[in-house]
Amino acid sequence: METTSRVEAQGAAGTAEAPDGGAAPAAREAPHGAPRARRSVDGYLLASFPWYGLDDAYTGPRWLMQVGTAADDTVEHGSIGHGEEPSLRLDQSPDKQRFAVVVTIADRPVRRSADGTGVLEATSVSSAAWLAGSGLLAHTWPAKMERGLRQDWLEQQTAIAWELADDLEGPDWSLLSLSVEGVPTDFRYRESEYGWVLAGSTGSGVHVGAYGRGMSAYGLGFSAIKDIASYER
């Protein structure tokens, strides 16, 4: 994958490579943790692939988060939130948060960069797992920790998230069958004290990752969003 920074956790932890050997896609909007009164749907509408969210069995709030683009402004991935928007405010405990975020990333082959000077790595389920893992980190890092220690913690946890996403066949992941458009689909799934992360492929040109806290991943279903513009608020 192309360009610069760790997408979901860039506001908290700086930059790093993606697990497929390339760089994690750039996010050119505010980090997930940054409060915004209104989130624009414009970037989502520019994507050449379908966006995924929880299926109609979920009836709670849904909200836009951000899209990530390549150096040529091609939309590569983005996230849709469900439940209560997580906050890093010091007066709000992460343990009381209840949310699930679905990450959609386009299935891309190895390809030339937009300027023709290099080769971009293919995206994969590991890419989705990486975006989901770093997204969970961005929402659950210990804001009450002393600043110097917090940075060390973030660096350690982001390194662990990278390594886990790069080893989906390892013992830290289990198989979880969830519905995608009504079809049982295998996902790689793991839990931690901070929440859960899962990743898989839809068979429709995208990989899907998800992360959450306070909402069980078991029994979730995913479907393509019919009208992404309706999510703008």
Task: Describe the protein.
- The chain is α+β, with helices and mostly antiparallel strands and 233 residues long.
- The protein has one domain.
- The protein contains four helices and twelve strands.
- The chain has helices spanning 10-13, 42-45, 125-140, 147-165, and strands at residues 26-27, 52-54, 62-69, 75-83, 99-106, 111-112, 119-120, 174-180, 183-192, 195-201, 206-213, 221-224.
- The strands form two sheets. It has a ten-stranded mixed sheet with strand order 1-3-4-5-11-10-9-8-12-2, with helices on one face. A two-stranded antiparallel sheet has the order 6-7.
- A hairpin with a 5-residue loop joins β3 and β4.
- The protein is globular and about 45 Å long.
- The two termini are 30 Å apart.
- Mean pLDDT is 79; it is low at 1-37.
